[in-house]
């Protein structure tokens, strides 16, 4: 069964450093998403991406965040200068055309110290 | 204003019990509805989509009441492996298809 994969599973970084989180969506899906979940809180939408551009972003997704699809398979989330409050689980999800269901990757746990 | 609201629980039930979870959503334009299951520190996993006519998948039954903006999930014959957090999730029908999550209802099934 096809699945979304994410790397790394855990990233520890110092405040102010740049991090790149990587995702490989399900191969025939065209809609891609990043969500985050701070420990003990609900899953929150960050950004959606379709047809090589951002289709929507939340207020969390400020200028420190960016997304890219550098090739035909990877989808990345970059945080330019991490803050302590960026510590969270970051989930990538993808969706096929003509369906509403989104499938999530296993997540990257980001710890900013 | 909470967009998707759930009772946080926990619901603590014995194996074999029937348990029901409810959820309300605030946006009447919402178009699609889901229940996801999340185990501790894991990703949300799609349990089932919810349709207006109601739908059943084995021991799980989901119902949607658009007039009341209310979604339910019924689990029959609970198993120990059903212990998890159940997330009520809504797509508001915008072009991005982003998902709005409830905070989840925690279920503990005891032997």
Mean pLDDT figure of chain B: 94
Overall SS class of chain B: mainly beta
Largest sheet of chain A: 7 strands, mixed
| Average predicted local confidence, pLDDT of chain A | 96
**Rg over CA atoms of chain B:** 13 Å
List the total number of helices of chain B: 0
What does this structure look like?
The complex is a heterodimer of chains A (113) and B (111). With 113 residues, chain A is mainly beta. Chain A contains no helices and eleven strands. Chain A has strands spanning 5-7, 10-13, 19-24, 31-37, 44-50, 53-57, 65-68, 75-79, 88-95, 102-104, 108-112. In chain A, a hairpin with a 6-residue loop joins strand 7 and strand 8 (75-79). Chain A is globular. By secondary structure, chain B is mostly beta strands. Chain B is built from no helices and eleven strands. Chain B starts with a strand and ends with a strand.
List keywords for this structure.
heterodimer, A: 113 residues, mainly beta, seven-stranded mixed sheet, four-stranded antiparallel sheet, 0% helix, B: 111 residues, six-stranded mixed sheet, 11 strands, 53% strand
Summarize the structure.
The complex is a heterodimer of chains A (113) and B (111). Chain A is an all-beta fold and 113 residues long.
Layout of SSEs?
The complex is a heterodimer of chains A (113) and B (111).
Chain A: E1 5-7, E2 10-13, E3 19-24, E4 31-37, E5 44-50, E6 53-57, E7 65-68, E8 75-79, E9 88-95, E10 102-104, E11 108-112
Parallel strand pairs in A: 2-11
Antiparallel strand pairs in A: 1-3, 3-8, 4-5, 4-9, 5-6, 7-8, 9-10, 9-11
Chain B: E1 4-6, E2 11-14, E3 19-25, E4 32-38, E5 45-50, E6 55-57, E7 60-65, E8 70-75, E9 84-91, E10 99-101, E11 105-110
């Amino acid at each position: 069964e096809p699945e979304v994969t994410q790397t790394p599973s855990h990233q520890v970084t110092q405040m102010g450093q740049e991090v790149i989180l990587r995702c490989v969506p399900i191969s025939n899906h065209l809609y891609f998403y990043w969500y985050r979940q701070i420990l003990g809180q609900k899953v929150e939408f960050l950004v959606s991406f379709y047809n090589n551009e951002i289709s929507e972003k939340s207020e969390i997704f400020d200028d420190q965040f960016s997304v890219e699809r550098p090739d035909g398979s990877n989808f990345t989330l970059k945080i330019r200068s991490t803050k302590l409050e960026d510590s969270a689980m970051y989930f990538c999800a993808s969706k096929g055309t003509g369906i509403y269901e989104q499938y999530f990757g296993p997540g990257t746990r980001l710890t900013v110290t | 204003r909470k967009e998707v609201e759930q009772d946080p629980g926990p619901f603590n039930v014995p194996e074999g019990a029937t348990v029901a979870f409810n959820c309300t959503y605030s946006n009447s334009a919402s178009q699609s509805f889901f229940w996801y299951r999340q185990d501790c520190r894991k990703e949300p996993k799609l349990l089932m989509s919810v349709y207006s006519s109601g739908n059943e998948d084995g021991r799980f039954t989901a119902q949607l009441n658009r007039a009341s903006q209310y979604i339910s999930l019924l689990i029959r014959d609970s198993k120990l492996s059903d212990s998890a957090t159940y997330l009520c999730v809504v797509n508001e029908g915008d072009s991005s298809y982003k998902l709005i999550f409830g905070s989840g209802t925690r279920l503990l099934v005891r032997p």
